[in-house]
Amino acid sequence: MDIGLDDIINVNLLKRKYEDYADSLTSGSNIKSVVKDFISFIKQIRLTTFSSKLLKILNEQERIAKRILLVYNIRYLLLIFYKSIIQRMINKLINLIRSFLSLI
Q1: pLDDT band, residue 98 (cuts 50/70/90)
Q2: How far is CA 80 from CA 5, 23, 50, in A?
Q3: Are 34 and 24 in contact (CB under 8 A)?
Q4: pTM, entire model
Q5: Is residue 64 part of a domain?
Q6: CA 83, CA 86: separation in Å to the nearest integer?
Q7: What is the pLDDT of residues 16-74, one digit of tens each?
Q8: Could you give the CA distance from residue 5 to residue 70 in angstroms, rounded to a whole number?
Q9: DSSP of 28-69, one letter per residue?
């Protein structure tokens, strides 16, 4: 197996890109777009990868990244239900307070 200068440069670029993703995820800014970009990056790498070990690692990374997106998207759905449940409970409490005040 010959390792050329292009292979070394590609590995260094890959390492730098992964470090950028790790830094972006650590900073917590715009996680959704970072994860989406990471998934597309993994898909591009997969097209040129022949190693079964590397493919397993890429599959696991993609699976976890997709789960992050799923939880991130469900979070908004949960917030919608959360707000409506809380609003109904507040309205019920207000009605109970008003009915109590009417008895006094």
Answers
A1: confident
A2: 53, 31, 44
A3: yes
A4: 0.70
A5: yes
A6: 5
A7: 898 999 999 988 878 999 999 999 999 998 888 888 888 899 999 999 999 999 988 88
A8: 40
A9: TSSHHHHHHHHHHHHHHHHHT---HHHHHHHHHHHHHHHHHH
Q: Is residue 69 part of a domain?
A: yes
Nearest Cα to Cα of residue 59 among 74, 73, 43? 43
| More confident site: 78 or 69 | 69
Number of domains in the chain: 1
Distance in angstroms (rounded) separating the CA atoms of residues 57 and 48: 14
Residue 45 domain-assigned (yes or no)? yes
The CA–CA distances, whole Å, from 12 to 39, 82, 88 equal 20, 46, 56
User: What is the residue whose two structure tokens read 């970072």?
Assistant: 34
CA 70 – CA 74 distance, rounded (Å): 6
